[in-house]
Design brief:
The complex is a heterodimer of chains A (110) and B (120). Chain A is mostly beta strands and 110 residues long. Chain A contains no helices and 9 strands. Classes of the chains: A mainly beta (110), B mainly beta (120).
């Protein structure tokens, strides 16, 4: 089955840029979605279809996907960005096909 | 406004059954996939399965096939997740989420989660 690999944690100072990676075999050929989950809350989609943002998500959050790595980039990091972030895709090539989540990355704002 | 409202927390004993619900509103229920996602204490997100209410097409993650049953009632725009025989390892928060018109669509809206606790 398809595996998505994320770093377990990332620490960034306020105002700096956070880049959260999601590795997978030829992931650039797939549609990747990203979710933010704050403690005690349900996940919220922040980027879908590699780089689209739902309404209400600030432009500081952006996504890209190429080769074997998808990346969620958060510029001008704020305290409110501290959360767990998960990448996800629909694996249509496995048998049976199904959804795959990365293990999650805990973003800490120093 | 799209809303998914889940049923309340459950406390059960091993071997008991339970059915939790996810009532939706604000969109055409039949036309979008509904997913169920598990989050065990302190852990990440795991996909259990999805259902397409229009024709009840249901897909399960192999790890959960035979362990849970996912269904949808078009008349009440409600999706369900049920267990016939719970185990302590089923203790987790369970989320429902609205998927896309296509099965690969992102989960654009989520329920608030239902905590299921299984303990003797």
């Amino acid at each position: 089955s398809y595996v998505l690999t994320q770093p377990p944690s990332l620490s960034v100072a306020p105002g700096q840029t956070a880049r959260i990676t999601c590795g997978g075999d030829n992931i650039g050929s797939r549609y990747v979605h990203w979710y933010q989950q704050k403690p005690g809350q349900a996940p919220v989609v922040v980027v879908y279809d590699n780089s689209d943002r739902p309404s209400g998500i600030p432009e500081r959050l952006s996504g890209s996907n190429s080769g074997n790595t998808a990346t969620l980039t958060i510029t001008r990091v704020e305290a409110g960005d501290e959360a767990d972030y998960y990448c996800q895709l629909w694996d249509s090539r496995s048998d049976p096909p199904g959804w795959v989540f990365g293990g999650g990355t805990k973003l800490t704002v120093l | 406004e799209v809303q998914l409202v889940q049923s309340g927390a459950e406390v059960k004993k091993p071997g008991e059954s339970v059915k939790i619900s996810c009532k939706t509103s604000g969109y055409t229920f039949s036309n979008y996939w509904i997913a169920w996602v598990r989050q065990m204490p302190g852990k990440g997100l795991e996909w259990l399965g999805v259902v397409y209410p229009h024709d009840s097409d249901t897909r399960y993650c192999p790890s959960f096939q035979g362990q849970v049953t996912i269904s949808a009632a078009k008349s009440s725009a409600t999706a369900y997740l049920q267990w016939n025989s719970l185990k302590a390892s089923d203790t987790a928060i369970y989320y429902c989420a609205k998927g896309g018109f296509l099965i690969r669509g992102a989960f654009l809206a989520w329920g608030q989660g239902t905590l299921v606790t299984v303990s003797s």
